[in-house]
Design goal:
By secondary structure, the chain is an alpha/beta fold. It is built from twelve helices and 14 strands. The chain folds into two domains: 163 residues, Four Helix Bundle (Hemerythrin (Met), subunit A) (Up-down Bundle); 204 residues, Rossmann fold. It is globular. The chain binds 5-S-methyl-1-O-phosphono-5-thio-D-ribulose. 5-S-methyl-1-O-phosphono-5-thio-D-ribulose (MRU) binds next to α3 and β9.
Length: 373
């Protein structure tokens, strides 16, 4: 079985209007949405794609935490959306009718979800946004607060859809017919709610009849490029070629790449950008070959509290993801040490532009980002 709605063309979605995406109340996207009864979060398990499309229903805090930690739902904006719906569902389970007790339990759940992954700022951004609904409405009935939480979670997803649409338009304005584009990891519909950020311009251009040649880095060790990006692009009918990460230099040298488009998990105030491990290497290669390198992401991914990339916490993951995760047999001795950082930071000097829903920011980023906030 394949996802039913994930690959619909933008034009179709626009013609139908936002509310009819899957024809029920608040289901805005297939990869992360509320269950029919509004009490659980339903996700497509991204760890099983592209071979199996399995939907998971998350009802407990532990299931939600695990889904984010184990990348069943992943990609910075999608994690934020999932966190918004999750805390809404957990709030419905709180039985206290006294505000102080309700808020104490809400905060505990919020902090627990927030601790699932450290790098993508969208997670804490969405949870803080949900918390401010609680604190701003402390004088209301708990049932009203819960209702408002539901509305806020839906707004986070609605806004994400709109942001991705705008980012796709801005990104497309930088591309021309026949361009070769290299991307790393997955910043497509699965990582957001629709369209995606780095992949959005290609999907939008394709719909308008433009042809591109996309090179998708497989993205070791968890293969988001192989399993998710090449899947999304292939299904959309875009010319995609999957390459191993260490082939990027060669395809650039061959003159096949006119631009690099990547997503981001946290952007510091000086424009340094954290994204999937390997991204900074792509940027360094792009500079060597004179290819423009763009970072695409919503403004919710910008963290003005981080002055530079040095302030961004990089997630360290299990060593077995390198040794054995996608192999039938382990590819290294169990006792061999592995180092498995999930992200790296691309120096702002390597970035030609940061493409947000508010426009294309250019260096110096300390100025263009400050102006934005
Ligand atoms: O570890 P992941 O798969 O969550 O990492 C995802 C990325 O690095 C994406 O490029 C980023 O979150 C942007 S998604 C629009």
């Amino acid at each position: 079985m394949e996802p039913k709605y994930l690959f619909r063309r933008y034009a179709e979605v626009q013609n139908e209007g936002e509310d009819d995406m899957i024809n029920t109340r608040e289901i805005l996207a297939e990869n992360v949405h509320l269950s029919e009864d509004g009490k659980s979060v339903v996700i497509i398990d991204q760890t099983k794609l592209p071979n199996v499309t399995e939907y998971l229903t998350l009802s407990t805090a532990e299931e939600m935490y695990r889904a984010i930690k184990e990348l069943q739902v992943r990609g910075a904006p999608a994690i934020g959306i999932c966190a918004g719906y999750s805390i809404y569902c957990l709030a419905q389970q709180i039985t206290e009718s006294d505000f102080a007790l309700f808020y104490a339990r809400f905060k505990k759940d919020k902090e627990y979800l927030d601790s699932s992954r450290p790098t993508a700022v969208n997670l804490s951004w969405a949870l803080k946004r949900m918390e401010s609904v609680v604190t701003a409405n402390r004088d209301k009935e708990i049932s009203q607060i819960i209702e408002l939480l539901g509305e806020e979670a839906v707004s986070i997803q609605r806004e994400d859809i709109e942001m991705c649409r705008k980012i796709s338009e801005y990104g497309l304005s930088l591309l021309k017919e026949g361009d070769g584009i290299l991307t790393h990891c997955n910043a497509g519909p699965l990582a957001t709610s629709r369209y995606g950020t780095a992949i959005g311009p290609m999907l939008l251009g394709n719909e308008r009849g433009m042809k591109f040649k996309v090179f998708s880095d497989e993205t070791r060790p968890l293969l988001q490029g192989a399993r998710l990006t090449s899947y999304e692009l292939q299904k959309a009918g875009i010319d995609v070629t999957l390459i191993c990460d260490n082939m990027a230099s060669l395809v650039m040298k061959n003159g096949w790449v006119q631009a690099c488009f990547v997503g981001c998990d946290r952007i510091a105030a000086n424009g340094d950008a954290a994204n999937k491990i390997g991204t900074s290497g792509v940027a360094i290669l792009a500079k060597h070959y004179g290819i423009p390198f763009y970072v695409l992401g919503p403004t919710s991914t910008i963290d003005m509290n981080c002055k530079t990339g040095e302030d961004i916490v990089i997630e360290l993951r299990d060593e077995d993801e390198i040794r054995s995760k996608f192999y039938e047999k382990p590819m290294a001795l169990k006792e061999v040490k592995c180092y498995n950082p999930a992200f790296d930071v691309t120096d702002h000097e390597l970035i030609h532009g940061i493409i947000t829903e508010k426009g294309i920011l250019r260096p110096p980023y300390t100025e263009s980002l400050a102006k934005l906030f």
